[in-house]
Amino acid sequence: MSDRIVLPLNVPTLKKAGSLAAELADLVGVLKIGLELFVAAGPAVLDVGRKHGRPIFLDLKLHDIPETVERAVAAAAAHGVRYLTVHTSAGREALGRAARRAEKESGGALTLLGITVLTSMDASDLAAQGIPRSPAEQALALARMAHEEGIQGFVCSPQEVASLRRALGDRVTLAVPGVRPVGADVGDQKRVATPTAAIAAGADLLVVGRPIRDAEDRRAAARAIGAEIDAALVAHRGAMGRAS
């Protein structure tokens, strides 16, 4: 079991989510519920995490006016969600109000994770939006701004982890999608890395979906990724010790 693995329950129904969680919850640390499942099943799906004793990562990527974002954060806190995503591009006021409400409603139990640049995007996608920065530059700029407003966690691709860790320090939580074992299909992800590389760069949580969900033997796939993470953590701590 690896508490660093975030397993997305990217399935269309509550029943399928329950089955997937029952099969794999003992091998992962966090269960992630995204837009598809939350829209299909509603807040009842949050009971899946409670049933299996796993924290819930509610990936709604909130991006709206400040009052709406603030109220949505309060509702998530009331449901006992552990992680909740908000878009850093929602702006300073929305992020500041969200952070204050998360602290007030949850006593620090809810960690907001700021979405920087989606891992499905590259420089050409940003340019099409009129953003002249590289994904790494944009992710860092958004993370710095959000951190100033009280956001204590971020979602970024493996390629931006090291720069965010250097800039924001050890206290922030960095969740990394786009994690793929060597030889795995990258799908629609454009900025990816192996579990070993993500850990070495400073990631806290590794979002691993299709390499586990679509594997012929899901439990074996989860165990293999967990073993790679454990080995990477040992190597990373050893490297840090030698550097100090």
Description:
The protein is of the alpha/beta class and 244 residues long. The chain has one domain (2-243): TIM Barrel (Alpha-Beta Barrel). It is built from eleven helices and eight strands. It has an eight-stranded parallel barrel, surrounded by seven helices. Helix 4 (66-78) runs parallel beside helix 5 (92-106) and helix 9 packs parallel to helix 11 (218-243). The radius of gyration is 17 Å and the shape is globular.
Briefly say what this structure is:
The protein has 244 residues and is an alpha/beta fold. Helices cover 48% and strands 16% of the residues. It has eleven helices and eight strands.
Keywords:
244 residues; TIM Barrel; 16% strand
- Number of helical segments? 11
Overall number of domains: 1
Number of DSSP E strands: 8
Instruction: Write the CATH fold name.
Output: TIM Barrel
CA-based gyration radius: 17 Å
Low-confidence stretches: none
The coarse silhouette is globular
What's the architecture, going by CATH?
Answer: Alpha-Beta Barrel
Mean pLDDT: 90
β-strand percent reads 15-25%
